[in-house]
Automatic annotation (TrEMBL):
tRNA-binding found in the keyword field: no
PROSITE patterns on file: SBP_BACTERIAL_3
Native source species: Oceanospirillum multiglobuliferum
Protein name: Amino acid ABC transporter substrate-binding protein
Signal sequence range: 1-22
Key word Signal present: yes
Family matches, as InterPro entries: Iontro_rcpt_C (IPR001320), SBP_3_CS (IPR018313), Solute-binding_3/MltF_N (IPR001638)
Amino acid sequence: MKKRNKLFSILTMIALPSLASANSAALWESSTLSKVIESNELRVCFEAGYMPFEMKAKNGSYMGFDIDIAKELAKSMGVKHVPVNTAWDGIIPALLTNKCDILIGGMTVTSQRNLKVNFADPYIVVGQSLLIKPSLKGVVTSYADLNDPKYVIAAKLGTSGEIAAKKLIGKATIRLFESEAEGALEVANGNADALVYDFPSNAIFSSQNKDRVIHLDKPFTYEPLGWAIRKGDPDFLNYLNNFLRQIKGDGRYMEMYKKWFANDAWLKKVQ
């Protein structure tokens, strides 16, 4: 009996690496990453219209921060980038039914969406940020510095900016406007000390009005965006997270970030 047990243990030790290798091969063959390389194209879902992430250019092509990242991702795989413009209400179903390989389209990571798809690590946070008067440079370095009755804070009525302003800097004098443009102009004209609004909108306005406002571009509420893929694909998820770390480490991410968030040269190309 002892000899049989010993023989069984030896056979198991021999078989286990083979089984592990077979399982790894099966996982790789079923991975989207493997299929993308085999097809020589990366199909990317998004909905054009969310500036400056994805927009339609006057020449009919697509442009934006997400588009550039998607192109860089396809380049890293050695495959063709294929944009798939998709209506927002059908964008997750499009991914799940294999109409695209990945969703890179300004999608906020939420627990509800995470039940349907997996997200790579957040690649940008687009919570609330601040536009401040140039005279407050160095005086106001975060939202906490504005929590004083002497400051007038602009916010758009009925938005998360209004909620954040009232919750986090409630001691300030808060003035509400029908549009973010009105609030931003109040700051630019010196009638308000700061505007609390979405990071992308503030970035665009500040790039157009560099001498009139300062953008404190570190969001102070947490609204992370992530790339979505189908569930059960650890190889693809691992690749995406490593790709993100690499482009952030070698400077490519910052180059793309500055191109879309630090200037407005691209606006004249938008359809």
